[in-house]
Amino acid sequence: MKERPFELFVFDWDGTCMDTTHAIACAIQEAARVLGLGVPSYETAESVIGLGHKDMMSRAVPDCTDAIYPAYKAEYWKAYIKEEDRITGLHPGMREMLTAMKDAGLWSAIATGKSRAGLARVLAKTGSDGYFCASRTMDEAQSKPSPDMLRQLSDECCVPISKIVMIGDAVHDLEMANNAGAAAVGVTWGAGRREALEKLHPIAVVDTVPELARAIGVEDLLK
């Protein structure tokens, strides 16, 4: 059996496993527009994806006060669900890799800024729940880039941080890995730009799932 550099493979969800970046960015803008708040640029909306919901909104829409936030959140979810309904599955190639990893007995987990209910919904929608041995959402842990999610997953799975790799599309994912002392791989098909991801010194920044498989040491499973 091939010796692998990692024992726990932690995936971000939005923009990494599922191509929801556009849906989230558009929903951030639409909710602000409906409530008459300052509408952020698409780039600004995209840049906050991966944070906990309230952190995401406070950065993208600074005039969304605590008093306005409940109404903003309701409008955001209304717009997001409409956009998400158009997305039918995982990012191309991701299901095949996750299936191969599961069949090989490897452990995968999720660290996401989604709520627990939101994660449960998309896992059920995509039939992906069986791929992951553990998960952390913003309901159970501090928002990225805090290392809290990775530390909790390390404890739950009894895997040392040195044997964990975080896979994500946003700078917040890579910052979380750095803060925890874990390895990281950036993917370019989501919210993050290669230049920004590379500045955080991940072990690799990849453009395709086969490149990701090589970076995390599971390329043999896809042959």
UniProtKB/TrEMBL annotation:
GO CC terms of this entry: cytosol
Example GO BP: DNA repair
Record keywords, A-Z: Hydrolase
InterPro entries, per database record: HAD-like_hydrolase_sf, HAD-like_sf, HAD-SF_hydro_IA, HAD_2, HAD_sf, PGP-like_dom2
Superkingdom as given in the UniProt entry: Bacteria
GO molecular function: phosphoglycolate phosphatase activity
PANTHER family documented for this protein: HYDROLASE-RELATED, PHOSPHOGLYCOLATE PHOSPHATASE
NCBIfam families: HAD-SF-IA-v1
Name of the protein: Hydrolase
